[in-house]
Amino acid sequence: MRIALRFTNIFVAAVLGTLLCGRSLLAENPDMLPALVGSGPKSLVNLINTKHLMDRSQQHGALFFLARVDPNGYPSYSKVWGTTKETEPLRDELRERLAEARFMPAVYQHRNVYAWFYGTAAFSVVDGKPHLRLFANQELPELQKESDFIAPQPIWLPGKIYDFAKWKDPSGAWASDDKPVMAEMLLTVDAAGHLKDVRLQSITPPGKPSYGDAALMIFRQRLYLPAYRNGKPVESTTHIKFYFVPEWYRLW
Q1: 184-223 burial by CB neighbour count: b if 16+ within 10 A, else e?
Q2: 248 or 217, which is more confident?
Q3: What is the pLDDT of residue 176?
């Protein structure tokens, strides 16, 4: 993925402490809010050490990341991808800081809920000064325009009954030769958070249709928070990645 070459040269703005003002969203609809980076001392944007990146000769780069933000604001799971040799310092810093960051948790029906936050971190050095930007989406057209856009966020509610009776884990038995598989989906969610359409775009590595079927079943049962543009919920069609990781593989 050549994300760094495609759009990072435009990121020259000053460091931002948050992606979107939570208070403006709160005024719109206090019973439904997306997870946000926030601006406190433990927020991801304030934890990333830009001096350390410069010391490791990081000049320009951008990476995608995923964080499952729990109701207490801490990410219990995170993943970074899109790495090239030139962005390895940014990858290492982002991985380390995600483990200790605290987000503003998502809200659904007036309570904090689990949410999957899909973001982009972009770093550049301009005139000898570091510039860091964090975005709550992974859509290249939105990133190129530096839009105030938050992608839809899948959420999970404790106690909700999910019908997985027909779902079969596509991964093989314990200690099989299976490796992680990524399904890329195209997701359409309306301004109220209702799923309108989900389509499978690709499977990596290819030739594993059972993973595509499983991903579609999971996405059709999920609940979602809508996309937000300039602080207001909107209908959107966005790309989203889903990873299948065999349980035994996590031991290595």
Answers
A1: bbebebbeebebeebebeebeeeebeebbebbbebbeeeb
A2: 217
A3: 58
